[in-house]
């Protein structure tokens, strides 16, 4: 009873204070009432913590494998049977190619069949369909990049600066995580600056426009780009970091696969609750001049994610601080924008460069 009276008193005081505040600053009432920044930045502008599950499971499984005697025996037998060059070049090429096509292939099945529904319902831009003919076109470019860019790069690295292959060179768990973290940092820096440079109007049409052909990309389209772009922005940052650090070939190969899976997820168009969100990069493909980096650290520093964060904050205000609902709302708006643009724009101007949707599409619906 006493609690109820106290609560009633507090409510009445706060109602009076609110009424006074309304009279004192009526213009503030027009603005959305956002929760404190400390409470909204992480959950809204980044994926939910559960979306780290897939990455953590992958890392945990690799660390566990590396610590096992089975792994050490496997590496010993490989080193006894094949040359250092063969393991570094053919081994790494075979594994990374298989992983890329397997992961992109799983997303392709859902894209083309809309099955299983439990996955397809998380498609960010469900109105934008990539046909099987377009898929074939993407596959051709992805295969070309693998054969003529990844292949020679791995062969060159295997010839000039091969990674150690003996089981005795397998690093400990913390060192392994350090190598992977260094690679992620290198990709964040290298990809951000090269990618942003390619959005310069003088370079865009020649080097990057092809990658933006699909405003609602699919997983396989992660490497739908020209040779120069694939080498400089997608591969070089990690290749340089690994060449300098020279970890065991298994760590370098896993890191390559980990980055491949990340970029396929980023282009997949699916915002799965337990895997890496595609929302950030999907927004880049839709808006062109925001979200250049893979993680978002440099976008935050250089303020190149302003419209993305504004859209998320606006959605959060409308959802009264509920981050889950805010994300859903933004996903719906992104899909609605895409759908509206499709209806409004002639097909000839639809798939255009940075002066297209990015400039004409405002953030205000
Ligand atoms: Zn992309
Ligand atoms: Zn771009």
Task: Please explain how this structure is put together.
With 365 residues, the protein is mainly α. The protein has a domain at 42-276. Helices cover 69% and strands 0% of the residues. It contains 17 helices and no strands. One zinc ion is lined by residues 195, 199, 208, 212, 284.
Share of helix among residues? 55-70%
Number of strands: 0
Mean pLDDT: 81
Q: Give the amount of beta strand, in percent.
A: under 5%
Structural class: mainly alpha
Show unreliable segments: 1-45, 342-365
SSE run: HHHHHHHHHHHHHHHHH
Ions, cofactors, ligands: which are bound?
zinc ion
How many alpha or pi helices?
17
Oligomeric state of the chains present here: single chain
N-end to C-end Cα span: 49 Å
Q: Largest sheet, if any? A: none
The shape, in one word, is globular
Radius of gyration: 24 Å
List keywords for this structure.
mainly alpha; disordered C terminus; binds zinc ion; 365 residues; single chain
